[in-house]
Prior knowledge:
The structure is a homodimer.
Chain A (H helix, E strand, L loop, with lengths): L21 H19 L5 H8 L3 H7 L3 H14 L5 H6 L6 H16 L2 H13 L1 H26 L10 H24 L10 H16 L5
Helix pairs in contact in A: 1-2, 1-4, 1-7, 2-3, 6-10, 7-8, 8-9, 9-10
Chain A binds a DNA duplex through helix 3.
Amino acid sequence: xxxxxxxxxxxxxxxxxxxxxxxxxxxxxxxxxxxxxxxxxxxxxxxxxxxxxxxxxxxxxxxxxxxxxxxxxxxxxxxxxxxxxxxxxxxxxxxxxxxxxxxxxxxxxxxxxxxxxxxxxxxxxxxxxxxxxxxxxxxxxxxxxxxxxxxxxxxxxxxxxxxxxxxxxxxxxxxxxxxxxxxxxxxxxxxxxxxxxxxxxxxxxxxxxxxxxxxxxxxx
Amino acid sequence: xxxxxxxxxxxxxxxxxxxxxxxxxxxxxxxxxxxxxxxxxxxxxxxxxxxxxxxxxxxxxxxxxxxxxxxxxxxxxxxxxxxxxxxxxxxxxxxxxxxxxxxxxxxxxxxxxxxxxxxxxxxxxxxxxxxxxxxxxxxxxxxxxxxxxxxxxxxxxxxxxxxxxxxxxxxxxxxxxxxxxxxxxxxxxxxxxxxxxxxxxxxxxxxxxxxxxxxxxxxx
DNA sequence: GTCATTGATTATCGACTGATCAATAAAGAC
DNA sequence: GTCTTTATTGATCAGTCGATAATCAATGAC
Lengths: 220, 220
């Protein structure tokens, strides 16, 4: 199969000009941007984004005024779509033990968040954009960690009305951060994987056990 | 003080050509590279490195064959000098309780590792260079986490001869990663700080307590 | 079929990048 | 003081970057 020859349906380069609806084209561009930025960071070139999206580079500027807008579109494409609204109900379903609920939650949560694209884009964003980090930190604290403390209180019959203190969040933050770091470690360990690992549920279980022990009435 | 005027000792630009020994000049260049790369990532330009080092850009290429060599010099300048040999003895000083030893160690360790330059360079390296990550992960595991498990075993009179299993490292890794993540969170929280925080020892204490509880004989 | 709309491309700009080379000048040897 | 060594600079190259303007052509309205 000599390189010079080119079949009619060569997958490498489709020279035909394909006209898409603005919404569809924009979605393809954003997806290409997400993939590239996750690999190379935000200094990935607009030309490479265009190449992956199968278009020419100037066309990007019909959909985004500048590169920064494209970066922000990649942000929201990944981070805003992270949270599944069903998780809120799951975390507060008091018919199940806290440990079961949060085991289910963290397995589902890490299935998304441990994907290389998510993790890498997250850390790139973190290093570059302090605002994104502050925003997502708030999400984790309000949606996951505070509910975890409250639900555990309720399970122990301590009442869940009074506010969660900063002090009570230290251990949850430690464990949540530890889990994130676990995902990162796996990511770099075996390049090209999907972010999965057989021992993920086991690590989550250990983290939750630490939290439960620490919050047990007879513990310090 | 008009901009056009320029005093004899203008700190902004010293036009005098100053001749340094190769070792001294190289050290200044590496320091400038470390600072810049920690701020902007490794796509920081060689011209900016030169500007911060107070030299012209071509001079860099007398000391480093290419930019990649400069990056690797920045790596070793920061990461190789992290470990204090005194820490090995500290961690194995069995005249003190394990919790005291590791409290002292982690306070000293995080004093270095939570500095913005270290943390940022670390995460940039991690995202770009899987080898560096693998290398340092090995350091943490062999120098910190395995000793932690062994010393705890000895303290409990369980014997420390047999090898530390992967399973036993899960909780130490969770807590170590949680601490690292804690440093990162503070870093982004208040830009421009030194990486310090008043509650750092308290968080370390909580992490160590979790480890001790988990390894206690009556715990699962 | 004809035409207007607009998605898409080609060509190109100025700024910046990593890197090279010849010319310059500071410091030590004598 | 003179000379040799070499640290340092100025000039410059080819390539790439983000972004703009003019041009082309696919699609739907009629």
